[in-house]
Amino acid sequence: MLKLKNISKTYSKGTIKAVDNIDLDIKSGEIFGFLGPNGAGKTTTIKMIVGLLKPDTGQVFIDNIDVWKNSLEAKAKISYVPDNPEIYDKLKGIEYLNFISDMYGVPKNVREEKMNYYSEMFNIKEALGDIIGSYSHGMKQKLVLTSALIHDPQLFILDEPMVGLDPKSAFQLKEIMRKRCDEGKTVFFSTHVLEVAEKLCDRIAIINKGKIIAMGTMEELRSHAEERESLENIFLGLTE
Ligand SMILES: Nc1ncnc2c1ncn2[C@@H]1O[C@H](COP(=O)(O)OP(=O)(O)OP(=O)(O)O)[C@@H](O)[C@H]1O
């Protein structure tokens, strides 16, 4: 469903190598966690996947479509929730949801059903008539999550999704992620919360200094880590 082939990205005229020749192959129905310390290259990788940053080298395929050659076709299959919900402060919540639904061509009856369902679940339904500028950080994040789920993407990409969510919303989001994968859809997310990755993910990749240094199921990661048991220990051992 998602394939990265030898992608690299440098910043500051090549002086900072943020992502260094990485490969990933994520299947439909997988929930895949992308872990790494601060500055490891997670956000840069995600931005290359969703078409916001052009890789210096390499290719990204979503459902066998090259993101940088057929970007509209590829983007129609995904939703992206960034780590910082910077959205149009002057719009009302409902206007933003309709705008995103229009972009994805979601029919009126379908969008209404999804908007109701997710905005009720995330407890923001009452606020949809207010302008986004009046929302808290968590409410903006929940609005972005709602908007990202309206067109029922085949690939759901989230950058640090648990940050800023209250425990109930974080629980609900984890349930949504798991359910989507059970339906054969794919979830790719970055996180610093190792317990979430450990409990939720089918597979995990650990990135450090732009390179993938470990990848596999929890079992596979454990088998390479001798007596180290928790993901926290494996992570600390690999990235120290
Ligand atoms: N716009 C930019 N200009 C220059 N350097 C950048 C830029 N964006 C990121 N970097 C650098 O690229 C490297 C990777 O950054 P990136 O944001 O991808 O890491 P990250 O794993 O998402 O980190 P964090 O967990 O702190 O969000 C870091 O060294 C960072 O300082």
From TrEMBL:
Gene Ontology MF term list: ATP binding
Signal peptide: none
Keywords assigned by UniProt, alphabetized: ATP-binding, Nucleotide-binding, Transport
Domain ABC transporter per the UniProt entry, residue ranges: 2-234
One Pfam family this sequence matches: ABC_tran
InterPro entries from the UniProt entry: AAA+_ATPase, ABC_transporter-like_ATP-bd, ABC_Transporter_VariousFunc
Domain of life according to the entry: Bacteria
Protein name (Swiss-Prot/TrEMBL): ABC transporter ATP-binding protein
Protein source organism: Tissierella simiarum
